[in-house]
Amino acid sequence: MDSPIGIEDVDEVRPDLEQLLISTSRTFALAIPLLPEPTRHEVTLAYLLFRVADTFEDAASWPRALRVEALATFERLLLVPATLASGEVDATARRWAAEVPCETAGYRELLAELPQVLADFNALAPAAVGLIRDHTRRTARGMAEFVARTDERGELRLRNLGELRDYCYVVAGIVGELLTELFLLGRPALAAGAPALRERSRLFGEGLQLVNILKDSASDAAQGRRYLPESADRGAVLVLARQSLDRAVEYVLILQRHGAERGLVAFTALPVHLAHATLDKVESSGPGAKLTRPEVYAVVQRVNRALDQGAPLFAASRPAAGAPVAAANPAVT
Q1: Which of 44, 19, 212 lies closest to 128 in space, CA to CA?
Q2: 77 near 92, Cβ under 8 Å?
């Protein structure tokens, strides 16, 4: 039976992976433990692998050529069983842990532990390995294309809303697609809802990413990451974020309507609620505004109560599932 959401509910089934998750994430460290097995273990490893790619993409002070090379090397390592490349993986992980500029100590620890993460990844069921490998490689390849566009100072400037959506697809939309396929794996009861879930999956990721970009725009710009296009009004990005979050709401309701386990529904509902609350705060207070711990706790409790009571997870004013889906614009496939 799935457990209710709890801010400290991270058990010790796999302490090494859980600690890496806690040290490299906030929202996902809160949400992933809600998932039923084996999806929980699969998503934990998928998150950590995506976080490795993110670390290279975020390292603006590292030379552009080295970032592109690291993403290409990482993409190649995902293709090789860890047992056949353990020496290369060990040496590469040590070098990356020593050389890559990391924003937090947890990212450096993750790079150092990459051999174990890859070994655990390769031990998953073959279907899960194939899904995670293919989607992670697509993200790494797309990130390399954006890194290659940075200037000599490592600064990336997106020119318009189309490029912003392309970027969101690479770093988050693909994640939404992967999560959907992992949710559907071994769950025939969800098959009827699969087309609708797949249709909304990339926008689920896009909505969450746009909220992060709006929230972190000032700090990102200071580190050479200018994701908000100068040609686009900030209000237009806020509208786009709300539209994408509306599709994310539909995604959660489709899961719920088709009888998904509580853990799947909670895992998807919680970040959407947090994103809505964060976006409200950013819109009223500007970049850098974050939810306090009591505010996060209140959101968690609200989701728990709704799930306990079988009540609607979102306000009635949200569009009903089945509303038209906004067109995405992924340039990298």
Answers
A1: 44
A2: yes
Determine the pLDDT at residue 11. Answer: 41
53: nearest Cα among 147, 181, 153: 147
**pLDDT at position 289:** 86
Nearest to 313 by CA among 257, 233, 239, 237: 257
- Residue 226 phi, psi dihedral angles, 5° rounding: -110, 85
Q: What is the CA radius of gyration of the chain?
A: 19
Distance between CA atoms of residues 88 and 100, nearest Å: 17
Which of 143, 46, 54, 45 has its CA nearest to residue 100?
54
8 Å CB contact between 291 and 277: yes
Helices in the chain by DSSP H: which ranges? 15-24, 27-31, 39-58, 64-77, 86-99, 105-112, 114-122, 126-147, 161-168, 174-184, 194-215, 217-222, 234-257, 262-285, 293-309
The mean-pLDDT minimum among 200-209, 216-225, 226-235, 254-263 falls in: 216-225
Angle at 137 between CA 136 and CA 141, to 5 degrees: 120
Q: What is the greatest pairwise CA distance in the chain? A: 56
pLDDT tens per residue across span 229-263: 887 888 999 999 999 999 999 999 999 999 999 99
Residue with tokens 């010790």: 12
Region of residue 186 (left: phi > 0; alpha: psi -120 to 50; beta: else): left
- For the record, the structure tokens of 323 come out as 């509303």
Is this structure's pTM higher than 0.85? Answer: yes
Cβ neighbour number for residue 187 with a 10 Å cutoff: 18
Nearest residue to 69 (alpha-carbon basis) of 3, 148, 11 = 148
8 A C-beta contact, residue 237 and residue 164: yes
> Do residues 45 and 121 lie in contact, with contact meaning Cβ atoms separated by under 8 Å?
yes
Closest CA to 215 of 288, 144, 283, 275: 288
